[in-house]
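Our working data are protein records whose layout never changes between entries. An example says more than a description, so a record of this kind follows.
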Amino acid sequence: MMADSTVPTSDPLPVQQRNAASDLRKMRRIITEDYSWSLAIIPPLSDLCLQQIVRNFDHNPILEKLLPKHRSKVLERLSTSLPLPVTANLISNEDYWRRCCTERWPTCDISHYGFSWKRLFFERHLENLIEHFIPDLTDAGLICNTAELSKNYIKRLEIQQLLPPVRVEMMKEDEADDISDSGSDAAGDLPSMDHFDLNLIADSLCDLEEVHLVYGVKGCGMNFEWNLFRFTDRDCTLLANALKTFKKLKVFRLHRSKVDDDKVRVLIRSLLDHPCLVHLDLSHNQISDRGVRAIAKLLNQSQLRILNLCNNNICPHGAQAIAHALSKNNTLQIVNLRLNHIGDEGGQALCNALLQNTSLERLHIGSNELSEPTASFLAQVLSQNTSLKNINISCNRIGVDGGKQLLEGMTENKTMLEFDLRLTDVGQENEFYINQVLRRNHERTRAQAQQKQVYTSGLDW
């Protein structure tokens, strides 16, 4: 008999399965006792080196010698909590300082800091240290060292509070003068300073351009005491000395600090020969006519452009002193005398000065007990003065007759763009026609600006 050709072979597995089984036998299996074993690719040696540099950066800061691509990787991984002595003068990368700012403060607007994240960080950091400084309790050395590190990056300091010494019972200034020379116990209780002394950091901040100060406690709540809001004679003397050091200072603001006539005269004396000061803000203090006479003297000897004396105790004689200075001044552009007591006598003196002044652009004399006589003089100013663009006489008793006189002066005016008459009772009709004149002046100003732009573009050709 012939053999049956359909007899099956000895291997019952299909061909594909036999091939897969043979491949599995050829693979090498590795069983390790290291449970952290990973099939991930080992990072390049350069990355391992960069990781080591980041870990040891505070002890061995290597940055400038790296290639640009490696330097950027290190800056991305650096911690924002590195010591300032290490990072201050070594790292200029804005992205790093942006991370430092955004991780520390929820709101950051670099437009107020020259569009520099590094400047924002150092200014806010130093401000925070000063605002939480407590005399004879906090170490001033940290502030001095920080100011020295950041001296190239700080242009402005906005101090919203200055804390007094922590004492059980604050000693009055007149009691301090009566302390005997025999080394009494009371003498030992005197603090070394009443508030933070800017002279400690003045030499490090020679490029400072703006200083904003408040000698008081922010958010004291139920712990309120009048002693928390006290600008002492010693504070005044120290601050005056510091102002002499800030030769590049352009803006000085000292508000809500109970500055009186004696203290303002000491401060003004240190500013008489200041080379750069253009903005002086002493609003919300206790300055009266005697202190204003010193400020008027400053107007005659400085290049001030902005003067803010809002919410003080200025009366007619003080307004007359400012008016006398205005009649000779040719640099001042903005004057704010809101919330004072200059009355019609002071208002008329200011108006007479504005008939001679050719630089002032904005005047705020709201809430000053003015009435119709001042409106009569102001109407003459409106018809003759060609520099004023903004006047605010709100919250005064001008009356309808005074409003008619103002309207008569405005009909000849071509430069006024804003005129605030709220709560003056000048009458709706007078307000309406005055607004019509203002609208006409706006249109004229806009047309002149467009014409000037066309002329300038023609010169470019």
In short: Residues 43-93 form one domain.
